[in-house]
Amino acid sequence: MARAHWGCCPWLVLLCGTSWSPNDPGFFSRLLACAWGHTKPVDLGGQDVRNCSTNPPYLPVTVVNTTMSLTALRQQMQTQNLSAYIIPGTDAHMNEYIGQHDERRAWITGFTGSAGTAVVTMKKAAVWTDSRYWTQAERQMDCNWELHKEVGTTPIVTWLLTEIPAGGRVGFDPFLLSIDTWESYDLALQGSNRQLVSITTNLVDLVWGSERPPVPNQPIYALQEAFTGSTWQEKVSGVRSQMQKHQKVPTAVLLSALEETAWLFNLRASDIPYNPFFYSYTLLTDSSIRLFANKSRFSSETLSYLNSSCTGPMCVQIEDYSQVRDSIQAYSLGDVRIWIGTSYTMYGIYEMIPKEKLVTDTYSPVMMTKAVKNSKEQALLKASHVRDAVAVIRYLVWLEKNVPKGTVDEFSGAEIVDKFRGEEQFSSGPSFETISASGLNAALAHYSPTKELNRKLSSDEMYLLDSGGQYWDGTTDITRTVHWGTPSAFQKEAYTRVLIGNIDLSRLIFPAATSGRMVEAFARRALWDAGLNYGHGTGHGIGNFLCVHEWPVGFQSNNIAMAKGMFTSIEPGYYKDGEFGIRLEDVALVVEAKTKYPGSYLTFEVVSFVPYDRNLIDVSLLSPEHLQYLNRYYQTIREKVGPELQRRQLLEEFEWLQQHTEPLAARAPDTASWASVLVVSTLAILGWSV
C-alpha cells in the first residue's frame, strides 16, 4: 500500500541512497527518516552518507555551501584572538521555538534541526546533535562540517582540548548559554590552560550582516480583561508579596523567559512561531517596574494601560531591550538582592550580578504562580477546549467523507484542520506545527508533513492527528488516532491499551503535592502488561494563550509537584516502527478528589472533548470501571459540545457526535476477572515506584 505513494518520487530514493532496495526490510521507514530526519535514527552502520574524500565530493543536493560564511567567521574570530567559537541552537530566552533572525546555528551550518551545537576552530568545524537529527544533518551540511553523534558539553570539550592549543581562547555569546551550560563548559575547561571568553557581540550576526532577517516589529498589545485571570496590577502585587515573604527578602525579581513578561502584564505579540510572545525582560523591584522592549511597538493606548507616563511603584517604565545588561549592572551596584529563576536566565545576565546579591531558585515566582490557574483562568481554558473540539470534530467528519475519495494527503489534511480552527471564535493560529501522520509515518512520534513530502490518507491505514490552537482565552493540544477500515487485532489491542493508560492516569486519585513522575507509570501499565511501551514523555503543562508546552508542570523528574489548578496533558502512545503509530492525548485540570475519608487528595478532570475511535476499541479488554469512565466522559462531551454544534447549525457534526458517543457495552473477557488484574497490577506499580 505504501509503495504506490512513493512511485512518483524516484528523486527521493536517489537522494537517500541508491543502495537501498524497496524490497529491503524497513526500506520505507529509512526513506522517511532520510527525508525528514525527525525522530528515528537510521542505521547506516555509522557511515556518513556524504563522501568527502572524492574530488569533487559526493553530496546530497540538499546541502548548503558554507565555505564563504565560515571564512568570514574565522576572520571575526581572529579579531577577537579566539581559537574556537561556540554556536548554540537556542535564543536569548530559551524558547522552544525561535524566530528566524535567531537561527544562527542553522544559517552557519545549513543544519536546521531544532537541537544541536556547532563549534568552529581556525581549521575545523563540527556539529553535535542527538539521534533524531543525524540523517538530517548529513543531508544538509557540506564537507566543511564534522557530525558528532553525541550531545552534552563533555564531548564538545573533549574535542576542543584536542583541536585547540594550550592558551587558546574559546569564545561564546553569553546570551545564548544558560547558567547551567556555562558552568558545565567552565568546569570542564578548568585546569586545561584554555579560557572561556564571553563576547557580547555575536560573531555570526556580524557575518550574517544584511541577509539576517529583521527583528519582528508587529504591535505589542494588551489582552482584553475578559481574557485575563487577573489584572497586571494584581499580579505585580502578588509577586511583591512573595518577595516580602521570602527568607532572603529580595529587592527585585528579574524575568528572562518571554512567557513570564507576557503573563505578568497580560501583553501579547507574534515574535515567536506558535507562541504569542515578544522580545522582552522585566525587572520588578519593590518600588519600580522596568519593562525592556522596543517602545515603538507599543500604541499610545497600550502605554496608557501600563501607566508608563508616571514613575510610581505601579507605573511601568519602558526601556530599550538592548539596555537590559547595562541596567541590571547599574541596579546591582546598590544594596539589592535580585531573585532569578536559573532555568531561564542566560549567562549574559547572570554574569552582571554579583553572586552575593543573587537569590536563586530553579523557577521564578512568576513561573510558579503562572502554573496554577485561578478559577477564571480555568473557565477560560475550558471554554477554548469546547470550541477547539468543534474544529476537530468538523475535521474528523470531513475526513470520513473525503479520505475514501483518495483526495486527501497528510499536508492538505493539516491545512484543513488549521483552517477549521482559524474559523473558531478568538482564534490566533495553531499552537504548534500540526502532526498529521498516516500509516508508517505515525510511527515517527513527531513527524510533520510538508507540501512536497507527504503520504495520501487511506481507509486501510491508521491516521494520527496531534494538533492544537491558540485562542485569546486558552491554548489547546489534542491527539486522536483513527482507522476508517478494518484494523488488525494487534492494532486494536495496542490502541485499547493506550486508551486504558490514558484512562488509568486520568481517573487516578493521589495525595496532594505528589510529583508527576511518581504517577506517570499508571499511563504505561496496560502497555507494560503486554510487553509494550512508548519512548516519549507522558504529559506537559499548558497555558492560557501562552505556551503549548508550559513548564514546570508535567510528569518528568524535573517538573514540580502537582497542585490544584494546574493543567497538564496526558498522552500515552505506542509506535510500531515502519507500520503505524498511536497516541491519545487529552488536556486535564488537576482538581480536588472526593474520597471516602477526609484527606488532601487530587485527581484529574479532562477538558478535551473529542470522542475516541470506536472502531479501534477492543471492549473485551476494558474493565467495568473503564467502561463506566468512558461512558461518563462521552456524556460530558455531549453536554459540552453538542449544544455548541446545534447553536451553529452544524447538524451533520452533531449527528456524528451522537453516534460516536453512544454508550459502550461490556463484553466478557476471556481471562481472569479484571478486579484481580487491577489489584495485582497496582501492587506491582507501587512496588516499582518505591
Write a concise synopsis of the structure shown.
This protein is of the alpha+beta class and 690 residues long.
Please, could you describe this protein's structure?
The protein has 690 residues and is an alpha+beta fold. Helix content is 35%, strand content 16%. Helix 7 (153-163) crosses helix 8 and helix 16 (375-402) crosses helix 22 (651-660). The protein has a six-stranded mixed sheet, with helices on both faces. It has a six-stranded mixed sheet with strand order 12-11-10-8-13-14. A four-stranded antiparallel sheet has the order 21-28-27-24.
Shape, principal axes of CA atoms: globular
Number of helices: 23
Mean pLDDT: 90
Strand content: 15-25%
The biggest sheet amounts to: 6 strands, mixed
Features:
690 residues, alpha+beta, six-stranded mixed beta sheet, 23 helices, globular, disordered N terminus, disordered C terminus
